[in-house]
Write a structure and sequence with these properties.
This protein has 76 residues and is of the alpha+beta class. It contains two helices and six strands, in the order E-E-H-E-E-E-H-E. A six-stranded antiparallel beta sheet has the order 1-6-2-3-4-5. The termini are close together.
Length: 76
């Protein structure tokens, strides 16, 4: 089942299938290690859901919910 990263619940894990978006935002997400095939886990969410914290490639990464909406993930 595929899901957007912004819709993940705390503790869910998955593998990135694709990164949508264009230009600077896509390049920024790739530079942060959010590339197809990378495994990630949702660690924390702020009280109102923004920002979120994930573990990807062995480090903690904090993203805005709007940025996470560009990442499509296959649940494990």
């Amino acid at each position: 089942m595929q899901k957007l990263l912004c819709d993940f619940a705390i503790g869910e894990s998955g593998v990135i299938k694709c990164v949508t978006g264009e230009g600077k935002i896509r390049r920024r997400l790739f530079d942060m290690g959010l590339t197809p095939g990378a495994q990630l886990t949702m660690k924390k969410k702020a009280p109102f859901g923004d920002p979120i914290e994930i573990t990807v490639r062995g480090y903690e990464l904090t993203l805005r919910k709007a940025e996470a909406a560009y990442v499509e993930v296959e649940l494990l």
